[in-house]
Each structure stands twice: as C-alpha cells, then as structure tokens.
Amino acid sequence: MLVRWNVAVRTALLIVILAVSYVVLGRLAFAVSVQHGTVTSVVFVPEGLALAFVILFGRRVAPGILLGEILLSVWAGPSVLAGALIGTVNMLESVLGAYLFERWALRRSLDHPRDVARFVVLVCCILAPISATGGVSALLITGGIPADLIPETWAWWVQGAQPASLTSLSEVSTAWLHWWIANIMGQLLVAPVLLVWSVRQPAERRRLRPYEIAVCVAGIAAVTVGAVGRTSVPPLVLLAVTYPLLVWVGMRGGTRPAVMANLLLAPPVIWAGSGEGFLADASVPDRIAYVSFFIASGSLVALVVAAVLSERRELIDKLTVLASRDPLAPVANRRHFLEVFRSAADRSWRTGDPASVLVVDIDDFKVINDRFGHAVGDAVIVMVGRHCAAIAGGSERAGRLGGEEFALILVDTGIDDAAHMAERLRGLIAADHVEAAQGRASVTVSIGVAELIPGHRVEQALDMADAALYAAKSAGRDQVRIAGLTAGPQLDSM
Question: Rounded to an integer, what distance in angstroms lies between the CA atom of residue 323 and that of residue 318?
C-alpha cells in the first residue's frame, strides 16, 4: 500500500513539473514568436519536453501535457477549449512517440546512426504531422483561425463560416507548415538533450578537457554575438562557424556535449528569428526559413556526427578487447599478456624494483573434461582465470598461455612474497568448485614461481617458472615450487 502511495505521489509530482515547465517554456516560445498570417512559434520547446518526459517516465505523466496546454491557453490564448483540444492531441502524440520509441528499440543515448535516423523519422514524419493537423483542426473548430482564412472545403467545420478562395487554403496550409516546423524544432532540439543526459555514462567515457571546454565556450559566444548583434552577418557565415564547432565537439566529447552545444546555440538564433539581430532586415518568411534551417541542420549535424563517432569508438573498444582478451577466461590473451609482461619488466629493470612471474596449470584437466563435459571444463577455466586476475591485481596482469595454463606477473614483488601469493592462489582455487549435473567439479593447480632478473628475457623467466611448475607436477601436483633463476645468458635488451 505504501509503495502504491509513493508511486502515486511521484507521478503527481512529475505531472505538476511537466505542466509548469510546459507553461513556462510555451510562454517563452510565444514571446519570440512572429506574426505571419497567424502567430508562428519558430521553435515550440514544450513539444520536445513533453516527448522526453513520456519516454523517460511513461504514459502516466502524459496528463501533464494536457494540463500544461490548458494553462498556457488561459495565459496566452487562443482559448481554453482550443487549449484542451490541442493538449489532448499533443498528449496522445507523445504517448504514441514513447510507444514507437520503445517498439523500435531506440536507445536513449542516441549514440548510433540507426537510432538517430529512426528518431528523426519518428519526429518529422509521424509526431509533428499529427500535432500540426490536430492543432490547426482545433483552431478551425474553435474559431482560432479567422473565418476569412478558412478554405471552402473546410467551412462546414465552423458554424457560420463563409467560403473562401484558394488563397485562404494557402494561408491555412502555411499555418499547418509552420506548426509542423515548430514542433520538429522543439523535439529535435530539446528531447535529445533530456534523453541523452538521462543515461548513465560509462566511467571510462572520455570527457572534455578544460581547454576543449574553453574552445567550445568561445565558439558558442562567437555565434551568439554574430546572431544577436546589429552587424549584418550573412547566415551562411554563422553556419560556417557552427558546423565545424558541432563536429569538433562531437569528435572530442560524444553525444552529450554535442547536443548541449546545439541547445546553447539555439536561443540567440531563435531571438534573431523574432526580428532582432542579424535577421532584423529579413522578411518574416525568410526569418522563419533561416531559423528553421539553422536549428534543424545544427541538430542533425550534432546528432549524426556524435552518433557516428560514438559507434566508431564502441567498435574500436570491442576490437581492442577482442585483440587483447582471452575469448574464454577473464584474463589477457597470450600476446597481450607478453606485452604487459615486457612493459612491467622494463619498468622493474629501470627502477630496480623486483618482479616475479607465476605459471599456473590445472591438474588433471583432461579428466575433468572426460567426466563432466567440455562445458564444465570451460567453466573451470573461467573460475581459475578469475582467481588469477584477482591475485595479479588486474585482468591485464594475468594471461592464458594456452589450454589450461595461465601466467601472472607480480610487480614490486620479490620471490618470497610471490611464493606466498602463489600458495594463496592455490588455496583459493582448491576451495572453489563448479556446479555440474554429475556433482561438484573441484580442481587443484600446480604453480611454478620465478623472479625476474635484470637483463634476462621475459621468456627466460617464463621458462624457469614453467620448469618449476613441472617439478610441482612431478612431485604430486597441487603444490607450489620456486625456480632458482640465478644464471643465464645476459642480454642487452629484451
């Protein structure tokens, strides 16, 4: 009962937040609107907010859209009835958008070109047309569009409306087009920001450095000054600055910084669309066209470039893992382990700190495979690899040399401490097991220990540890043996 109450309170709070935000942002949108046949909002930000809210929190918060639109109509017009009708359409539109977003398996991070393409199709071809058609129809029904602008074919919608000419049809079509553009701009500009920032980013994801943030801020400031200043700046010049900036931000930081940069670039351009700044001398249709193209193209550039580069980085990360990780055990493969071993050996020789190596082999592994099957044998390899990585202090310092044989590099560890750690590893593995249909599969390991001597190849240390391992095998298995690596050919380099 308490859980249901908490859910109800949380839902009510989200509805209120959505409604209040919808009203405030809608009023700001109307404040920079322009008069063109009917009042035209260049970018209707609440549409993007509504879509993101329903995607993030579910359809239960959708009534906040209806409430917000009604309150906005009370504050700024056209009428309460028109607001209720428009709010109903926008509410249903956002619910449909959230359903298709989930149905099409789009990721909120929008970090793949496929997700971006489908999101753009969803907004431009499905949601915005529904909202524009519903909104214009609501204005026709309630008289929000003057009677002399109502087309003859639509006159029956409004009582007492007089037939009009084809020019009237063009005016209503223009209203529909502007409504469609405003909703597209709002959803492409705002929704991606809220969706992308709702996703927890991996800890290893690269972040912008201070100088990169400074460059980004300087670029946004330059575009802002050019957009709101009274100097005559050609729109193409602003685009020439904006596109490279968004591409650079996407390359350096990924989707999050790119969509934020685009959001910060939009306000001065929208302000210019109201008749200020570099568009002060442009006609109303030109202002609407410039602002719409600027924001739409900027949003698409930011999303597509960041998504392509994010997908590329993800592919590189996967290839790096495939090239360095063992395909079965949670340790490095042989090639990568030897690279790490050589790097650790070089550091040990430069600093004079000790380093040791363990070679581990699973006892009677063939018997395990024959008795329990290869699936259980694979699980045993995974279990042993997990313990090796834990003892080595990281998966890169433990590697699978092949079959059931592993190796560990222990940095800053002399031969005595290495022997103690080897004994601890042997005990951990002996105490563990793998569940199987035939019963518990318990295993033991034999371990050879060798200390790395300056000037020797790392392969020599592995050979000495391997010889100690076979001595442990010959002595009865399930034990640790130490190699006396005191002599050998001296080499100038590895």
Answer: 9
Q: How many CB atoms lie within 10 A of CB 284?
A: 15
230 pLDDT band (50/70/90 cuts)?
A: low
Residue whose entry in the numeric block shows the structure tokens 């063109």: 36
> Rounded to whole angstroms, how far apart are CA atoms 355 and 238?
59
Separation between Cα atoms, residue 237 and residue 241, nearest integer Å: 6
Q: Residues 235-281: pLDDT tens digits?
A: 777 777 888 888 888 888 888 888 888 888 888 888 777 767 777 77
Contact 26, 16 (CB under 8 A): no
d(CA 247, CA 239): 12
Here the tokens at position 235 are: 């729109």
Nearest alpha-carbon partner for 295 in 208, 379, 365, 190: 190
- Mean pLDDT on 466-492: 73
Element of type H or E holding 485: none
Measure the CA–CA gap between 45 and 52, rounded to whole angstroms: 11
Assess contact for 298 and 246: CB atoms under 8 A.
Answer: yes
Q: Which pLDDT does position 223 carry in this prediction? A: 85
Q: Are 427 and 452 in contact (CB under 8 A)?
A: no
Tell me if 279 sits within 8 A of 272, measured CB to CB: yes
Task: Supply the mean pLDDT for the chain.
Answer: 83
More confident residue, 314 or 167: 314
Q: How far apart are CA 108 and CA 115, in angstroms?
A: 9
Q: Across 302-384, where does the E strand assignment appear? A: 355-362
Instruction: Please say whether the beta carbons of 408 and 357 come within 8 A.
Output: yes
The single-letter DSSP state of residue 149 is G
Residue 59: other Cβ atoms inside 10 A:
15
Question: Which is it for the CA torsion 237, 242, 243, 248, positive or negative?
Answer: positive
How far apart are alpha carbons 482 and 259 in whole angstroms?
58
Token readout for 332 is 């490095």
DSSP state of 452: P
CB atoms within 10 A of CB 445: 27
- The Cα–Cα gap between 286 and 389 comes to 64
pLDDT tens-digit series, residues 106-165: 999 898 899 999 999 999 999 999 999 998 888 888 866 554 444 443 333 343 344 444
Q: What share of the chain is helix, strand, coil (3-state, %, to 5)?
A: 70, 10, 25
State the number of CA atoms in the 13 A half-sphere of 67 facing the CB: 14
Choice among 35-49, 183-197, 336-350 with the minimum mean pLDDT: 35-49
85: CB partners within 8 A, 6+ apart? 134, 137, 138, 141, 142
